[in-house]
Amino acid sequence: MESYTFAPEYQLPHWPFVPPPELDNDAVVRHPIVIVGAGPAGLTLACDLARRGVHAVLLDEDDTVGVRGASSRGICYAQKSLEIFARLGIYERIAEKGITWSFGRTFSGEQEVYNFNLKTDSVSVQPPFINLQQFYVEWFLVDRILELGLTDLRWKSRVTQVTPLVDGVRVQVETPAGSYTIEADHLIDATGANSPIRTQLGIDAHPSRSTDRWCISDVRFKKPLPTERWTWVDAPFNEGRAVWQHLMGDGVWRIDYQMPEDCDTAHISRPEVAGARLREQLGPGVEFEFVWIGPYGYRDHLLDDFRHGRILFIGDAAHVVSPFGARGGNSGIQDAANLGWKLALVARGLAGDALLDTYDAERRPAAAENLRVTSRSARFLAPRSPAEHTLRRAVVSLASRYAFARALVNTGRMSVANEYPAAAHLPEGGRTVQNLPLRRLDGRPTTLMELLADGTQCLGLWFAPTRAQIAAAADMTASLPLRLVAIDGDSGLPTLQPDELLARHLGNPAAGSLCLVRPDAYRAALLNDPTPASISAAVHAALAHR
After folding, report:
1. Quick check: 242 and 234 in contact, CB under 8 A?
2. 69 pLDDT above the threshold of 60
3. Gap between the Cα atoms of 458 and 545, Å rounded
4. Crossing angle of helices 354-381/329-347, nearest 10°?
5. Contact by Cβ (8 Å): 487, 463
6. Is the overall model pTM greater than 0.90, yes or no?
């Protein structure tokens, strides 16, 4: 039998358990914000709060990052997530370690039927996607959290009981040195798909488990493959089933093979079986070493409400979708960015409790949309009826010749920043503002994320305001969490050079108009004829003041 080599296991960092002061204190200490779970969503939220100068306690039952025994797990980080990481201060590390890509090809058999370039609609400093093993992103977040120094990061701390209170939450924690109890004004559940908190509270997640089965092979090749996302709808080297091919950090390729629904998961993960698949795909002489092999299935679920009193659910604790299009982990990161600025303003008394209701009002529809999109991809990749098989064959056949059919080839609609529905706090609805490159009046470069990075305030981009307009607005806006920046003109405000790309991206505002951008880089309002009263009203609406 042919032998296969495995690369050395990743040496992940471990952080020490530090006994918290509550272990030596009989009094129950109240903390403003307690986050449970140090995955991508929980760590992003803790880092976001720390970047805004807000203290939080983060509890995790492990003392490291990643999932033990699993190499890659989440790997594709979308532009909106990368923009968030830029604001948090870890983007450069991710870009240096990961693989930047925007081009993808889709094949049916030996024929390319579709390709795409995600740069086409991008104006951001950040690329459409970077591939990087999930544990690296978590590692960089922990390093940044420790650098910022405002988060009480407690390892080896397992939450055993959560008790909702009228004005907070009581939390029982078990550690190697004993158990203790704390209270929180707000508790954030970021414990993942199998949330013990959700289970203990009896909250129905409406789960649905797919019968679709896959096997991941993380591999290093002696001869590199093209740095593109290649997808086969029906690969001839995988018995007519789907295959994904991605490059990640450290020169490791992740190749996902769709398997028969009734497969033996232990058998398909054996090195000799996985090796045979690779040789079938790339030829008998291909030279490689395995990094990790593992089977997976998937499920989806969606909570009815992401907020239950003083408990809020983010990431996989709130929603799980199938992996097609990288909408799972990115959605959790974006949950955290949506919630972080709202918690920060509420904790500081600058916004009321109603602002936290907007988290559910925005992120649950986003999760529902992601569930719809990924469910369609799953049905395309694993048809459930003769009619669905016929439709897929017709679409694939037409796609190589006709543009309309290419849009129907559904191997995973790639993750994008979700738009938010119109509501009282967001009268025009919300859409993301990309991290455009900008220049100050003196020529120094900046970006939208740099303008949003300090503190927690809305950004008012005022196009060519006059000094009289600024003077009139000064008194009314002074007490608001609002930073005014001029685009061109001589107003006495910090001023940026006029930028055609920025204007077009914001809807071509006329001179004198003001675009209000929330702290999470979503457009809240465009005021064509801003007055002190209308600016104040727009900010109050964005903060859900009643």
Report:
1. yes
2. no
3. 14
4. 180
5. yes
6. yes
